[in-house]
Specification:
The complex is a heterodimer of chains A (about 300) and B (about 160). Chain A is of the alpha/beta class and about 300 residues long. Chain A folds into 2 domains: about 120 residues, Beta-Lactamase; about 170 residues, Rossmann fold (3-Layer(aba) Sandwich). In chain A, the strands form 3 sheets. In chain A, strands 12-11-13-14-10-15-16-17 form an 8-stranded mixed β-sheet, sandwiched between helices. In chain A, strands 5-4-3-1-9-8-7 form a 7-stranded antiparallel β-sheet. A two-stranded antiparallel sheet of chain A has the order 2-6. Chain B is mainly α. In chain B, helix 1 runs antiparallel to helix 5 and helix 2 packs antiparallel against helix 3. Chain B has one domain. Classes of the chains: A alpha/beta (about 300), B mainly alpha (about 160). Chains A and B meet through helix 3 of A and loops of B.
Chain lengths: ~300, ~160
């Protein structure tokens, strides 16, 4: 919370202190627009008393405040965050991820930075203790390739984080390699994870998944590889890992089984994963449905 | 009483002469520290991608008191996430000219706001200015420092003679 104080405009921070921090998921600062939050899964505007649905009462953030927030998040050291900025996000501390929107600056065809930053989406991670316990007591756990699917902001990473922790409770002791591309799963700071991932999790931070998979699997000999938000280009390396006898826990955007089936890469996904866990839109990290490899609905 | 007054006049003149000489030394030291800081920054930003806070914290113990004050102000600005690293009101070095103050404030205002390559270019530009200033004040301190001290003594003696 104190670290957030450094980033946010004073009025916004004071309004946030009136909220239950555990329920606060996102803070959005947009130039000359109301400050909005995702709170307990619902969208509100932020006003000096806390939350409001009325636009007129809402606090607004101006260009200078948005730019200062970005500069503060970078600790006045843009050069240290240049690579993250070129990918449109910042991971300043404790697993907090800040999405950056503005005009992309290209150099030799590649995006190198963002200028005229117009919006920041500050995503706050939370530990939802034992949210995956029900799934982890099923026969799918731990020796299956599991894909966790939900809409954005519905707790995929939180669920994955808890799954990683639950593996440490497994009597045989399984080594987990976490490919944490955006430092959201572990929130590494000074070589220490800000979230309890158990005793046997090794984290590779800010590396591409491809590198983490190829290098990490060879050097760390994991039993399980965990990664967040996979896409089409990750599937080949995931397939290779799964055929090498390593289990995979991964997450992906989607709402329901129809969404999953409609993906172009669905056939590839089906070849890799044994189990599909869909999360509920109503409660953070709550399981809505579990399907097996043949897409048959399972009861836990 | 007269003797006491003469001692006071003499001391005041010697003090003023020393003060002028000291200001030249302080200028020389400040620009020397700024020059060294530029080298350190180039290494920290260009090679280690280090954050500014770490660079200031490391620098503040290995320099003269004037630059140490600047570093402390910058560390405090970074910890309190103020929009400027070094504010004009926190930079009341009365031995510097307005132009020199603006140059130093300009240097600090460009830090941390772009990628490594752009910053290194800016730092190199300022480094040249600081080197020139440092050289200029080193010569001045050598040539004029002693002169100011002697002038102070002679002025004191002259006033005493006048009083007699």
């Amino acid at each position: 919370m104190q670290k957030l104080k450094r980033i946010l405009p004073i009025s916004t921070f004071e309004a946030i202190t009136k909220l239950d921090f555990e329920r606060l998921q996102e803070i959005r600062l947009r130039t000359d627009k109301p400050v909005s939050v995702l709170y307990g899964g619902k969208k509100y505007f932020l006003c000096s008393q806390g939350l409001t649905l009325e636009r007129k009462k809402a606090l607004t953030s101006d260009k200078v405040q948005v730019e200062n927030a970005l500069l503060a998040a970078c600790e006045h050291s843009m050069h240290s965050y240049a690579e993250q900025m070129s990918k449109g996000f910042l991971a300043p501390f404790d697993g907090v991820r800040i999405g950056v929107c503005g005009t992309a600056v290209k150099n030799n065809g590649e995006i190198t930075a963002f200028k005229d930053v117009a919006a920041l989406n500050i995503r706050l991670p939370h530990r939802c203790k034992n949210c995956s316990e029900k799934f982890c007591s099923s026969s799918f756990f731990p020796h299956s390739n599991v894909l966790v699917i939900s809409s954005p902001g519905r707790g995929k990473t939180t669920f994955l984080r808890d799954m990683i922790f639950q593996t440490s409770l497994f009597p045989k002791g399984l080594n987990v390699l976490v490919a944490d591309e955006r430092n959201e799963i572990a929130g590494m700071s000074d070589g220490k994870s800000q979230f309890d991932l158990g005793e046997r999790a090794d984290v590779i931070t800010f590396a591409d998944k491809g590198f983490a998979f190829s290098c990490g699997v060879r050097t760390m000999t994991p039993d399980i590889v965990a990664c967040d938000e996979i896409d089409e280009k990750d599937l080949i390396s995931l397939f290779e890992i799964s055929s090498a006898g390593v289990n995979i826990y991964a997450t992906m955007h989607g709402k329901n089984l129809e969404d999953l089936k409609s993906k172009i890469s669905f056939e590839k996904i089906k070849k890799i994963f044994d189990c599909f866990v869909f999360l509920s839109d109503d409660k953070l990290g709550e399981i809505a449905a579990v399907y097996d490899k043949n897409l048959v609905l399972q009861t836990l | 009483m007269k003797a006491l007054f003469m001692i006071f006049v003499m001391s005041a003149c010697v003090y003023i002469g020393n003060d002028f000489a000291k200001k030249l030394k302080r200028k020389e030291r400040l620009f020397e520290d700024l020059k060294i800081f530029c080298w350190r920054l180039k290494n920290s930003i260009g090679f280690f991608n280090e954050k500014l806070l770490n660079v200031f914290e490391k620098s503040q113990s290995e320099c003269g008191s004037d630059f140490s004050d600047i570093c402390k102000n910058c560390v405090s600005s970074l910890n309190n996430t103020e929009d400027k690293l070094l504010k004009k009101e926190n930079f009341a070095k009365n031995f510097l000219t307005d132009e020199e103050k603006d140059t130093i404030l300009g240097f600090f205002s460009c830090l941390g706001k772009s990628d490594s390559a752009s910053q290194l270019k800016q730092i190199e530009g300022y480094e040249k200015i600081f080197e020139q200033k440092n050289e200029e004040y080193r010569k001045n301190a050598k040539e004029k420092g002693g002169l100011y001290k002697r002038l102070g003594i002679f002025a004191g003696l002259f006033l005493i003679v006048l009083c007699l």
